[in-house]
Amino acid sequence: MPVLKATDLGKRYGDIVALDGLNLAVEAGQVVCLLGANGAGKTTTLNLFLGFLQPTAGEARVAGRIVHDDPAGARAVLGYLPEVVQLYPLLSGIETLRYFNDLSGQPVLLPADATAALQRVGLPQAAHASRVGTYSKGMRQKLGLAVALAKGAQALLLDEPLSGLDPKAANELVALVRSLAADGTAVLVVTHDIFRAQQMADRIGIMRLGQLSELLDAATIDARGLEDLYIHHLRDVA
Ligand SMILES: Nc1ncnc2c1ncn2[C@@H]1O[C@H](COP(=O)(O)OP(=O)(O)OP(=O)(O)O)[C@@H](O)[C@H]1O
Ligand SMILES: [Mg+2]
């Protein structure tokens, strides 16, 4: 059974079709990247998996549960990195982990487990006790992932995790996503970075006007070929 599954999933706002008949499955251990122009429906897709939006057609399932029947149950097994990671600047990295852990109703996070999660995402030891307000963008992204890790999420939903990262930080993030997948996590990543998508993904989807217009095996294409295909798909989108 896939961890994430969308079946004929759709979302409309009056005449605006944000997502139109999405069929997509992400298995445990698999990374799927979604590419697509601004407004193509990528964030809408993540928000439907998270139960932040009600679908107007079809269903999203997380670990077999229909999200709109049990949004809290779905979120309990999801880790989510939003487009803009919101953190409390006065909390340290460790305190942030514990805070989000408590919020999501998990058992108390032991200091050793918090440290292990921060190490796993590659946050330097010196930063663990520093206030998050002093973190760089890459460090904030890593902390966001550590929150998901500490939760033991079965699936991760990452909305543009690479935006604003320098090449080294982007490389580290790609490696981290691959290693989380190797441990069995299902990962759905929205990105505009074609090169990193090709490196990171097992499968790549190209979204266009609310539809998944292409879904391909990342091993069958190089970054150049993917860029050409992307431009081809988006050629007549204003
Ligand atoms: N609350 C809303 N009311 C009306 N239309 C909305 C609403 N939320 C999203 N939309 C529309 O749904 C479409 C899909 O938006 P979505 O945020 O999913 O795009 P996206 O692919 O994530 O784009 P981006 O790359 O800019 O983040 C857009 O046309 C957007 O304007
Ligand atoms: Mg978006």
Features:
binds magnesium ion; 2 domains; binds adenosine-5'-triphosphate; 238 residues; single chain; 6-stranded mixed sheet; alpha/beta; Rossmann fold; 10 strands
Protein described:
With 238 residues, the protein is α/β, with parallel strands linked by helices. It contains nine helices and ten strands. It folds into two domains: 1-77 and 155-238, Rossmann fold (3-Layer(aba) Sandwich), CATH 3.40.50.300; 86-153. The strands form two sheets. The protein has a six-stranded mixed beta sheet with strand order 6-7-8-3-9-10, sandwiched between helices. It has a four-stranded antiparallel beta sheet with strand order 2-1-4-5. The longest helix has 16 residues, at 167-182. The termini are far apart. The mean pLDDT is 94. Residues 42-43, 83, 159 line the site of magnesium ion.
